[in-house]
Amino acid sequence: MSISTQCPQCNTRFRITQAQLDARQGTVRCGVCKAVFNATERLRNDTLTAPAEIPSDAPVPLDIPPLPEESVWREPPKEKPHWLWAVGCVLLLLLLTAQLAYFYRIDIAARYPSLKPALTSYCQLLKCDIPLPRHAELMTLDSSSLEIDPAASNIVNLETLLHNHAPYPQAWPDIELTLTDAHGTLMARRAFHPADYLQSGETGEAGLAAGGEFAIKLRMDTADIGAAGYRLLLFYP
User: Fold this and answer.
1) What's the pTM?
2) pLDDT of residue 159
3) With respect to CATH, is domain 136-235 assigned 2.60.40.3230?
4) N or C: less crowded end of the chain, CB within 10 Å?
């Protein structure tokens, strides 16, 4: 016959000896809920399996302790459908593509002419246009000369060759002519627009073809300047 007691707080039963009851006048502490109670008042005479000895100051419970509150099963939260994330990613990708098409529409149309009709329709919605590329670093002025007209000493003839090195058409650039004296000091400067050097009636909308060349000829009156040298520069305003 063994002696057991039961915790009044959590109803846990555990084995106890007479020596433990005598040590503290029957006062013990529950090993599960830590409640202090008088074991003498809740003694039970029964046979328990797997008996276990307990120290005098902390009784070891024989029953399996209950699960803590956080271990109780709860229904997991419902997850949002995965297709919503997929739709959101697609929309973000479309928005990014639309932005890239707007900011790089000029280069895209130049490098991929087959896409220009679609870009033109897209620009009609956004009230934008698709001008020709303007990469001055891919344009050069070659074989230039500035000579006095044999028929009129106050007139000089400027000749130069405009070359487009890009693999696509480019807009016609502006050309700046600087006249200097024998020491390289600035004496006069003038900018010529495409309308000044293109042939009469040409609008220049098609631009200079990819790898194309164009001979430029200009006549200027420099009677009051008396320049000894010159410099040429092409640029886009």
Assistant:
1) 0.54
2) 94
3) yes
4) N
Please, what sign has the CA dihedral across residues 68, 72, 66, 33? positive
Q: Bridge-partner residues for 67, per DSSP?
A: none
In degrees, to the nearest 5, what angle opens at C-alpha 81 toward C-alphas 79 and 83? 150
**Would the CA dihedral through 19, 22, 24, 30 be positive or negative?**
positive
**Amino acid letter for position 8:** P
Q: Which residue stretches of 64-148 are H helix?
A: 82-103, 105-111, 116-126
Three-state secondary-structure class, residue 100:
helix
- The model's pLDDT over 46-67, given as tens digits with 9 standing for 90+, comes to 554 444 444 444 744 433 344 3
What is the mean predicted confidence (pLDDT) over 138-156? Answer: 87
Tokens 């807009």 correspond to what residue? 171
Beta sheet of 213-221, edge-to-edge order:
139-149, 152-164, 213-221
Instruction: Give the pLDDT confidence of 222-237 residue by residue, as tens digits.
Output: 767 777 788 999 999 9
* Mean pLDDT for all residues in the chain: 80
For residue 182, count other CB atoms closer than 10 A to its CB: 8
Q: Residues of CATH 2.60.40.3230 domain(s) within the chain?
A: 136-235
pLDDT of residue 127: 84
